[in-house]
Amino acid sequence: MKGFDGLQMGLGNLATLSHAKTRSISAENFTGEKGKGGMATEGVGAWASRDLGQGWKVSPAIKLEGKSTATLAEIEGPGVIQHMWMTCAPEFWRTLILRIYWDGEEKPSVEVPLGDFFCNGWCERSIVNSIPVAVMTAGGLNSYWSMPFRKAAKITIENIGKQELHQFFYQITYALTAVPNDQAYFHAQWRRSNFLKYGEVHTILDQVKGQGHYVGTYLAWQTNNNGWWGEGELKFYMDGDQEYPTICGTGTEDYFGGAWAFEGPDGGYGAYTSPYLGLHQVLLPDGFAKSNVRFGMYRWHVMDPIRFEENLRITVQALGWRSEGRYLPLQDDIASTAFWYQTEPHVPYHEIGNKDDLEVI
Question: Which InterPro entries does this UniProt record tie to the protein (predicted)?
Fold first, then answer.
């Protein structure tokens, strides 16, 4: 796919020349300026580099005090963010909030706990081998979502807990280039039902207004009942749908590309991670401190985006089985992250909550 003033987005066009200018922001170059990387004389690595001096990994990371917000990047456009890599201790993955603002907006277009944005909402490391999100050994968090902007981009990270984070590593790579008129803005929103009330559905996304396309879902799902939990349907209400949706799935495991209760070849859950869908995390109880089964699953609509012209709402049912072959509405802990592109302005999101609202317990 050719776009962004010749900036290439696929293997087939890698040889094509472009006038886009590649820049990268990290703790070694806070502004991304050309020829300004690795110049720090102070930083978290200053002690280790004391015999070597400037240019020898003096500032590879930042500290995040409790109850504080750090600005990771402020970029003047036009341009497109191409890759974000971040890492820190997993116990902070629900107490760090990632926010992204486009073109000077007051309310963020991305507002998600760090771990959930990278499909690791349970604060326990899990490998993800997908195209737009990749999580590698020891918690290397990678995003390849294309994020175009016209005037400016601002990325922040908030530590909503009281504990100081001694080392937060990050690198944000982007291109300064023209952005065509038909390019929409990237959005991501987090919601949690803990616990889901009996007979109600979990809302993944609501109050989306404008034109756009939906590109992905991540769910961190904890079951609070015995037995199978994934009979519920995902429903997409678009462009004026009221009581009934335009798109209605056939079951939770079906939406994430699985079948028949995610059963593996040898019985039990068969975890998997692939370019566009996965049940990549299955956390089983240990009979002592862990009392519930927890799952992480993603579905990327990269090859099959769900397009809408005016509005969009998405829900998922939590549904198991009870006696006499009847469905049982479940009261599970469900946290969802929705990913989509749309025109601006967007409807401001609901309050994400405090540390206790987000806590993995």
Answer: DUF2961
Ranges in the chain, pLDDT < 50: 1-3, 6, 8
Positions of CATH 2.60.120.1390 in the chain: 1-181, 185-342
Q: State how far the Cα of 234 lies from the Cα of 114, in Å rounded to an integer.
A: 24
Strands 333-342 and 68-76: unpaired
Q: Which residues pair with 230 in a beta bridge?
A: 319
The CATH H-level superfamily of 185-342 is: Protein of unknown function DUF2961 (2.60.120.1390)
Nearest to 154 by CA among 25, 336, 4: 25
Tell me how far apart the alpha carbons of residues 107 and 185 are, in angstroms, rounded to a whole number.
14
pLDDT of residue 4: 57
Contact 142, 136 (CB under 8 A): yes
> Beta strand pairing status for 21-26 and 247-248?
unpaired
Q: What is the sign of the dihedral through the CA atoms of 199, 112, 138 and 127? A: positive
Beta strand extents in 160-233 (DSSP E only): 165-176, 185-193, 202-209, 212-222
Query: How far is the C-alpha of 122 from the C-alpha of 143, rounded, in Å?
Result: 18
H or E segment at 148?
Answer: strand 147-149
Q: Name the strand (E) or helix (H) holding 314.
A: strand 311-316
Q: Which one, of 276, 281, 294, 264, lies nearest residue 339 by Cα?
A: 276
Which pair of structure tokens corresponds to residue 209? 């207004």
Q: What confidence score (pLDDT) does residue 1 get?
A: 38
> Could you say which architecture CATH assigns to the domain 1-181?
Sandwich (2.60)
What is the rounded end-to-end Cα distance, in angstroms, of the chain? 44
